[in-house]
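REQUEST FORM: STRUCTURE PREDICTION
Request ID: SP-0412
Submitted by: Lab K.M.
Chain count: 1
Length (residues): 78
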Amino acid sequence: MFTLFRQDGRDLMTVVAGGVGMYEITIRLSAQEVAALCADETRAIALARDVVTRTAAYADRRVSPAIDPRNDADTVTP
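STATUS: Completed
RESULT:
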């Protein structure tokens, strides 16, 4: 499960990860990534899966703490 949204001028993706203990990972997205993800939702699904399975590869883009997109955000709808 993932959410694409914009907050404070940043394009972000929050992904639900974990097994027994669920947690969220929020990463920054480039404008080009947002356009590509909105044009083809299978890319968004693939990116979300990659973030969950290779979390360390996204460490430099991770927003900490995770942001709740339901609070003061404009959700990006594909």
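NOTES: The longest helix spans residues 41-53.
Reviewed by: T.R.
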